[in-house]
Amino acid sequence: MGAAAASPRKHAARATLDTPPASAGRPDYNRTMKLQFTKMHGAGNDFVVLDGIHQTLNLTPAQWRALASRHFGVGADQILVVEKPTRDDVDFRYRIFNADGGEVEHCGNGARCFVRFVTDHGLTDKRSVRVQVMNGVITLTLQDDGQVTVDMGAPELEPARVPFRPEGLPAKAEGRDTLYGLEVNGRTGWISAVSMGNPHAVQVVDNTEAFPVLQDGPIIEHHASFPNRVNAGFMQVVERHTIRLRVFERGAGETLACGTGACAAVVAGIRRGLLDSPVLVHTHGGDLTIAWDGEGESVRMTGPATTVFEGSIDLDRLPA
Q1: Which of 101, 112, 134, 210 is the most buried (most CB within 10 A)?
Q2: What are the backbone angles phi and psi of residue 13, rounded to the nearest 5°?
Q3: Could you read off the pLDDT of 74-131 as tens digits, one per residue?
Q4: Residues near 239 by beta carbon (within 8 Å), at least 6 away in sequence
Q5: 165 and 202 share a domain?
Q6: What kind and span of H or E run contains 239?
Q7: What is residue 193's predicted lDDT score, i.e. its pLDDT?
């Protein structure tokens, strides 16, 4: 299977598919009962994207996991679902399922792929769309150069709303931020707790490549102070407008890029007095540009969104 198209299998799937009128630029779903998908990535953070408007998706958690499996399914960090909105003031509803099968609140790199998908598949003719996510609404804009800018909304900095329970942890002030000490593998990591619609724990490290992200990440993810688990970010400040970043994502492990993680890191860096907006964020998968004007203002993220291939999969080949 190359970068052009996946070969569909010939067995009936369990997904219930509706048949819309055929139209230019829109996939012609039919009643072959195949689950149609598009494989995409944003700076290497990769996704299976599903049209939930023209096919009804009744997948079990095991099937979400199998679809995301790199050995037995299509393979992805997250699965993104495009649906009709449940409110009148937005264009679409956007749902995200992690590779572990759990539904989560937000995914910034996925949001960029979302707007590229709905545009390329003829689901909208707008260059800018308002999208309903679990905890609010975000605005996605497709730029003329193919880059996508996402208005991520204002960060949530109140610990209880992250959610984060700092009781019993050491704390210290840095700039306008309060840092909290987490004991991990015999070291104290001083983290900023930030929500970008999903929870993040951001710490500054001397060298992201040398830091034990794969050892510390799982411990931070499951730390008792984060009741919904947390995305663990490790930020190296290069200069006041540039950082390097690695993120161990909740339910997915380390990914090549994390959009909400990049936003959270820049917010933390600006509040600590280490960074000035805009900030170029270097990740293993590519670069993102994050702009933030301060407390109460929205974070704006700009970066790429790329389609890799399209195909269909027989859900009978996946676990029930």
Answers
A1: 112
A2: -105, 165
A3: 999 999 999 999 999 999 999 999 999 999 999 999 999 999 999 999 999 999 999 9
A4: none
A5: yes
A6: strand 231-239
A7: 98
Is residue 7 situated within a structural domain?
no
Q: What is the DSSP letter of 91?
A: S
Q: What percent of the chain has pLDDT over 70?
A: 89
Indicate whether 173 and 132 sit together in one domain.
no
User: What is the span of the domain harbouring residue 290?
Assistant: 159-297
For this structure, is 113 an active site residue? no
The response to whether 207 counts as a known ligand-binding position is: no
Selecting among 76, 258, 268, 288, the annotated active-site residue is: 258
Tell whether 135 is in a known binding site: no
Residues 55 and 184 in one domain: no
Token digits for 82? 């495009």
The rounded percent of the chain whose pLDDT value lies above 90 is 85
Residues in the chain, overall count: 320
249 among annotated binding-site residues? yes
107 has catalytic annotation? yes
Q: Are 173 and 214 in the same domain?
A: yes
